[in-house]
Amino acid sequence: MHSFVGNKAADAHTVAEDLTKFTATTCKPVQDHSAYWVPTLYDNATGRPVETTGFRVYYRSFMNNSTGQMPMPNGLRMIAGDAKKKQPTPRGATGQFYCAFYGPGDLDGVARSANGNWPICGGNATLHFMMQFPDCWDGKHLDSPNHKDHVAFGAGNACPPSHPVKIPAITFDIQYGAKGTPEGYYLSSDKQGKSASSMHGDAFVMWDADTMNKRTKNCILQRRTCDNYGYQR
């Protein structure tokens, strides 16, 4: 089971043509016809899914110099994270859920679940997860068998020779309607492990080309922070 946002027609069998044919979306702006998804989070005590209460998708540049960065190519599909990773996510571990309320928040919360893998949030904070996707592309393949080999992470101002094309970096910022419990949670990608290590995300990109081109030119290349509709904040 996965939790989808974006294109309303998307499922595990979606192909690029579907994203151009069916354009109804939960995204703002509606010119973003992409599909984004992550494994569903479940409450370990009840077995019920935990709903997302916010799912922000950022397109930006983490490189010191974004010169030469091209708009995100339509039809590009990629995965961030590792669905097969199964290890504990104790206090201080990387790749874990954290607590936040309109800000960076406290990674560890005020307590931990009994198995130590999940934070318990205090005050108004709730569970969040942030995930960054690769920002370099091989310039040839819109996908690969593992949805990873055609993209890579850049460093500083450059992309590796194997993936020389700079593209915007997608970041998921996901908010959940839960504060954490002693019983903890599990992901649909690892029902037995009951840790956050298998958290991963899929991005299947499909934008109105003119809208993406303008945002790349006016926001990303200018290193401006823009709102949902492409205007500088």
Helix content range of the residues, please? Answer: under 10%
Q: What is the CA–CA distance across the termini? A: 36 Å
Number of helices: 2
What is the mean predicted local confidence, pLDDT? 92
- Enumerate the strands of the largest sheet in spatial order, edge to edge or round the barrel: 1-2-15-5
Number of domains: 1
**Poorly predicted segments:** none
Computed over alpha carbons, the radius of gyration is 18 Å
Number of strands: 15
In short:
The chain has 233 residues and is mainly β.
Question: Describe it for me?
Answer:
There is one protein chain. This protein is mostly beta strands. It is built from 2 helices and 15 strands. The protein has helices spanning 16-21, 209-220, and strands at residues 2-6, 35-39, 41-43, 52-60, 77-81, 98-100, 111-112, 119-120, 126-132, 136-137, 151-152, 165-166, 169-176, 185-187, 200-204.
Which terms would index this structure?
single chain, 233 residues, mainly beta, four-stranded antiparallel sheet, 2 helices, 8% helix, 27% strand
Strand and helix layout:
Blueprint: E1 2-6, H1 16-21, E2 35-39, E3 41-43, E4 52-60, E5 77-81, E6 98-100, E7 111-112, E8 119-120, E9 126-132, E10 136-137, E11 151-152, E12 165-166, E13 169-176, E14 185-187, E15 200-204, H2 209-220
